[in-house]
Design brief:
Length: 104
């Protein structure tokens, strides 16, 4: 029986970007599981998860994530406030429009 070859690029990602102290064991474990019948999709999911865990460990990624969440929250509050102000305080028609009919 010939050995199934795992997805080449997924394996390369794990070999180059996974945590250095677990890299060799992780590559071996993924290979064994793949040989026992796991799917290519499973292999890709595990490889991407391993790389994402390392990327999340970098402090600049955590800071960037926090800043992005704060920025999105501020933008949402700003848009919500502007929408509320425009619908609450905007006159129903302009005072200089001759054909304006106020509905109250």
């Amino acid at each position: 029986m010939t050995a199934r070859k795992p997805p080449r690029f997924a394996r390369w990602l794990v070999e180059h970007f996974a945590s250095s102290y677990q890299r060799e064991a992780l590559v071996g474990d993924l290979f064994e599981e793949y040989q026992s019948g796991r799917s290519r999709l499973w292999y890709w999911r595990q490889a991407l998860y391993a790389v994402a865990r390392v990327a999340h460990g970098f402090s600049f990624v955590r800071r960037l994530t926090r800043r992005l969440v704060v920025l999105l929250a501020i933008a949402a509050l700003g848009v919500g406030t502007l929408t509320w102000a425009a619908t609450t305080y905007a006159p129903s028609c302009a005072p200089y429009a001759a054909s304006c009919q106020k509905v109250h």
